[in-house]
Specification:
This protein is an alpha/beta fold and 385 residues long. The protein folds into 2 domains: 10-102, Transcription Regulator spoIIAA, CATH 3.30.750; 145-382, no CATH class. It contains 14 helices and 4 strands. The chain crosses the membrane at residues 139-157, 177-195, 322-342, 362-383.
C-alpha cells in the first residue's frame, strides 16, 4: 500500500478480487498536483505487478477538484492502461463528473517540430538566397521609382494636381541650400588635410609643388563628388526616409491614394528632382571649398603662394577632370533618392521599424554610391578619360 498526502490529497492502492482498487481522497487541486504526480510515478511499478485485470478508481473520497486535479485523474487512468489494467471510474460526485466530461480522454500530443537544419545550406545558402531575392525586389521597385521621374516631369509640365514647383523648391531648399554650410566646411577641412599630408610626403623628394596636382585631380575627379554624395545620403537621404516612413505610420500615404493622388508623384518626385539639382551644385561648392582649404594650407605649410597655386592648378587640371567628376553627381543623386524613398515605403507601424529603415537607407545609399564611383573609375580607365 502506498499513500501520498498534500493538503489532504491522497492516492491509495489496494488489492481487489479482479485486480486493484485505487482510492482517491482529499482535495485534488493544483496545490497538490506535484506531490500526487510524484506518487503516481512511484506507483507505476506496483501497477505493473498486478498484471492483466481491472483497476477500479474510486473517487468517492475526493472533497475538492479543479481542472488540474481532473487531468491528474486522467493520468491515473493512463497509468493503469500502461500497466495492462482496464480502469473504470466510480463514486464520482456531480462536480467531478462535469469536469471529467470536459477533460479529453487523453492529453493532446504536441505538434512535432521540424528538426532544425544546421547544415551548410541553412547557414550559408539560405541567407544568400534571401539577400539576393531582397536585392532583386529592391532593384525592380527602384526601376519603378526611376520611371516615376519621367511621369512626374510630364505631370509637372501639364500642371496635373499633386505635382508643382512649390514642392520641388521646398525640397531644394532643404536638400541643397541648407546643406551648403556643412558641405563647404567639410570639404575645406578635407582639402586642407589632403594638402598637408601630400606636402609632407612630397617634401622628402623636394616636390612640394606637385601637391597642387594631387589635390586638384583627386578632388575634382573623385573626392569632391563622393564625399558630397555621402554627406547628402546621411543628411537628406535619412530625412527622406524618415518623412515618408512617418507618413506611412500615420496612414497619410493611404489617404493620398483614397483622394486620387499618386504617392510616388506627390512625395518621391519632388525629392528626386531636388536632389538631381542640388547634388551637382553642392559638388561645385565642395570643390571650391576644398581647393581653398588646400591653397591656405600649402601657403602656410609649404610657402606656395596663392598665385603659384592657381598657376599650377591651371596646368595640372584639364576639362576632363572636371567633367569626369561632375558626370557622377546626377547618378548618385538618383541612387540616394530612390534608395531613401524605397526604404521609407517599407516602414511598418512602429517606431522601431522607422529607425531600422532610416539606418538601412543611409547604409545602402553610401554602399551603392561607392560601388557606382568604382564603376565610373573602371570605365574612365578603360576609355582613357
Amino acid at each position: 500500500m502506498q499513500t501520498a498526502d498534500e493538503s489532504n490529497a491522497s492516492l491509495t492502492i489496494e488489492p481487489a478480487d479482479a485486480g486493484l482498487k485505487l482510492r482517491l481522497s482529499g482535495a485534488w487541486t493544483v496545490f497538490s498536483a506535484r506531490a500526487l504526480d510524484e506518487e503516481l510515478e512511484s506507483s507505476a511499478s506496483e501497477l505493473k505487478k498486478a498484471g492483466n485485470g481491472k483497476a477500479e478508481i474510486d473517487l468517492s473520497g475526493v472533497s475538492e477538484v479543479d481542472t488540474a486535479g481532473a487531468w491528474l485523474v486522467r493520468r491515473v487512468e493512463y497509468a493503469c492502461h500502461e500497466a495492462g489494467l482496464k480502469p473504470s471510474l466510480s463514486g464520482m460526485s456531480d462536480r467531478v463528473a462535469e469536469l471529467m466530461e470536459a477533460i479529453p480522454d487523453a492529453l493532446p500530443e504536441p505538434e512535432a517540430k521540424p528538426a532544425a537544419e544546421t547544415g551548410f545550406s541553412k547557414r550559408v545558402l539560405e541567407p544568400i538566397g534571401k539577400s539576393g531575392y531582397a536585392a532583386a525586389h529592391d532593384l525592380s521597385n527602384g526601376l519603378g521609382f526611376f520611371g516615376a521621374l519621367f511621369v512626374g516631369l510630364y505631370d509637372l509640365v501639364t500642371r496635373k494636381a499633386g505635382v508643382n514647383m512649390a514642392a520641388v523648391a521646398s525640397q531644394l531648399d532643404h536638400a541643397g541650400v541648407r546643406a551648403v554650410p556643412i558641405i563647404a566646411l567639410m570639404s575645406f577641412l578635407v582639402g586642407g588635410i589632403i594638402a598637408q599630408q601630400g606636402a609632407f610626403q612630397l617634401s622628402y623628394f623636394g616636390a612640394e609643388l606637385f601637391v597642387v596636382d594631387l589635390v586638384g585631380i583627386l578632388q575634382l575627379r573623385e573626392i569632391g563628388v563622393l564625399l558630397t554624395a555621402i554627406m547628402v545620403a546621411g543628411r537628406s537621404g535619412s530625412a527622406i526616409t524618415a518623412e515618408i516612413g512617418a507618413m506611412r505610420m500615420r496612414e497619410e500615404i493611404d489617404a493620398l491614394r483614397v483622394m486620387g493622388f499618386d504617392p510616388i508623384a506627390v512625395l518621391v518626385f519632388p525629392r528626386m528632382l531636388a536632389l538631381l539639382i542640388a547634388l551637382p551644385l553642392l559638388t561645385i561648392v565642395a570643390n571650391f571649398s576644398a581647393l581653398a582649404g588646400a591653397a591656405l594650407v600649402v601657403d602656410v605649410y609649404s610657402g606656395i603662394t596663392f598665385q603659384t597655386f592657381l598657376q599650377r592648378l591651371n596646368e595640372a587640371v584639364d576639362m576632363s577632370s572636371v567633367v569626369s567628376g561632375m558626370a557622377k553627381a546626377p547618378f548618385m543623386a538618383l541612387i540616394i533618392a530612390i534608395v531613401a524613398s524605397l526604404e521609407g515605403m517599407k516602414v511598418g507601424g512602429s517606431a522601431e521599424s522607422l529607425g531600422q529603415k532610416v539606418t538601412a537607407s543611409v547604409v545602402k545609399s553610401i554602399f551603392v554610391v561607392i560601388v557606382v564611383d568604382g564603376i565610373f573609375a573602371i570605365f574612365y580607365a578603360s576609355v582613357d578619360f
